[in-house]
């Protein structure tokens, strides 16, 4: 099967996300903004995602196409992004960023949803497709850091636009998923948030997502505080994404060995260890060494949680379920994380912030264990227990 167009689309879209996640805080700092202002601006994107992700996910299920929604999102991101990177006034940036992330934030979840559906339809590993997004993220983080060191952080849009244009072109060529034959009604989507198993799961993963999103927003500033520069930022993401690629690539061997909830608990443990280590790193070089844990913690968690959501929602609402999960993990957690992190950074320091993140990961671990007990007491969980490998 020719999946290279889909893989290429994920590669270049996640490359564009590198520019935003890794360097946008540094870009705002270069504009002369304060820590609390940066935190608020970084919260605007996830706030937009809370609305945009479920909306575009539902429209994807309603129109029974993922590809066409992606084309709309990529085109909107390219156009609004041009405006955003021309604006320098703090108050004007807020509405423009909101509109910008209304297009960019759903694209990641929709791309992963398309990869999940294609993998199921053609009997291939989801991780073998999704890993190309991580390869793009890691590769561009390294190259982007070197380029921005030379051309200047204020020229960030040119890199972003190139990657989005490539993603748009490959998306046009990529296959679409086979649509579900069942009709989709708005009432059915609304009922999803009333499903006890799904609702409690989304609450459970929130603490883990909160710690993850705080790190996304502030690790670049932490690197600068520890004496690193744009190149260090690029290397840090490259190291983390390298292990993420390996985790995704090898998922065909490890993912089915234990239950998905087991991997979520293991990921929470690794997140806890990671944040504790980062709270005490003496300099930027030690931080780079700890970054290898990024791919393991995020890879285990995201692959497991994303596919577990597919078990909790009807087939015809799979994209809606995926985008609802992502709106919690990246949206709600991103809003609260950016504001909380910015204020903690202003009042204390980034070491204190990472210590608090370790506590959040610990809460997530306890939550995952409690959810596991709850889930296996349900009828669906009991049925799955019968099929769990005897090695668990």
TrEMBL record:
Membrane-crossing residue ranges in chain numbering: 12-32, 38-57, 69-85, 157-177, 198-215, 235-255, 260-280, 286-309, 321-340, 352-371
Record-level Gene Ontology MF annotations: transmembrane transporter activity
Coiled coil, from the record: none
Cell membrane among keywords: yes
Annotated ranges, domain Major facilitator superfamily (MFS) profile: 197-392
Pfam families named in the record: MFS_1_like
UniProt subcellular location: Cell inner membrane
Bilayer disposition of the protein: Multi-pass membrane protein
SUPFAM superfamilies named among the record's database cross-references: MFS general substrate transporter
InterPro entries reported for this sequence: HcaT-like, MFS_assoc_dom, MFS_dom, MFS_trans_sf
Alphabetic keyword roster: Cell inner membrane, Cell membrane, Membrane, Transmembrane, Transmembrane helix, Transport
GO cellular component: plasma membrane
The UniProt record lists the keyword Transmembrane helix: yes
Name the record gives this protein: Major facilitator superfamily MFS_1
Species: Evansella cellulosilytica (strain ATCC 21833 / DSM 2522 / FERM P-1141 / JCM 9156 / N-4) (Bacillus cellulosilyticus)
């Amino acid at each position: 099967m020719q999946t290279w167009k889909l893989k290429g689309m994920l590669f270049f879209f996640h490359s564009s996300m590198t520019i935003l996640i890794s360097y946008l805080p540094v870009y705002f700092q270069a504009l002369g903004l304060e820590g609390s202002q940066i935190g608020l601006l970084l919260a605007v994107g996830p706030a937009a995602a809370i609305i945009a992700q479920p909306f575009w996910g539902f429209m994807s299920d309603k129109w029974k196409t993922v590809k066409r929604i992606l084309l709309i999102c990529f085109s909107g991101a390219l156009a609004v992004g041009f405006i955003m990177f021309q604006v320098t006034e703090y108050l004007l940036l807020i509405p423009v960023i909101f509109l910008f992330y209304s297009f960019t934030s759903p694209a990641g979840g929709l791309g992963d949803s398309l990869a999940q559906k294609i993998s199921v339809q053609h009997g291939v590993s989801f991780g073998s497709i999704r890993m190309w997004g991580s390869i793009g993220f890691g590769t561009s983080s390294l190259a982007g850091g070197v380029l921005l060191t030379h051309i200047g952080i204020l020229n960030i849009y040119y890199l972003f636009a190139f990657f989005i244009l490539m993603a748009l072109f490959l998306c046009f060529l990529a296959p679409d998923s086979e649509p579900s034959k069942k009709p989709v009604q708005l009432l059915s989507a609304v009922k999803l948030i009333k499903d006890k198993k799904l609702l409690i799961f989304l609450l459970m993963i929130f603490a883990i997502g909160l710690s993850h999103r705080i790190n996304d927003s502030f690790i670049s500033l932490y690197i600068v505080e520890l004496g690193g520069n744009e190149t260090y930022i690029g290397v840090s993401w490259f190291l983390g994404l390298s292990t993420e690629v390996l985790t995704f690539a090898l998922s065909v061997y490890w993912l089915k060995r234990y239950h998905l909830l087991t991997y979520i608990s293991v990921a929470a443990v690794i997140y806890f260890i990671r944040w504790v280590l980062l709270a005490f790193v003496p300099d930027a070089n030690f931080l780079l060494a700890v970054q290898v844990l990024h791919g393991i913690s995020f890879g285990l968690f995201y692959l497991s949680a994303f596919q577990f959501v597919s078990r909790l929602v009807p087939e015809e609402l799979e994209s809606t379920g995926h985008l609802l999960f992502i709106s919690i993990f990246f949206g709600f957690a991103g809003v609260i994380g950016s504001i909380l992190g910015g204020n903690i950074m202003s009042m204390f320091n980034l070491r204190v912030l990472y210590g608090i993140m370790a506590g959040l990961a610990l809460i997530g671990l306890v939550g995952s264990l409690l959810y596991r007990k709850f889930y296996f007491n349900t009828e669906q969980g009991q049925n799955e227990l019968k099929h769990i490998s005897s090695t668990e």
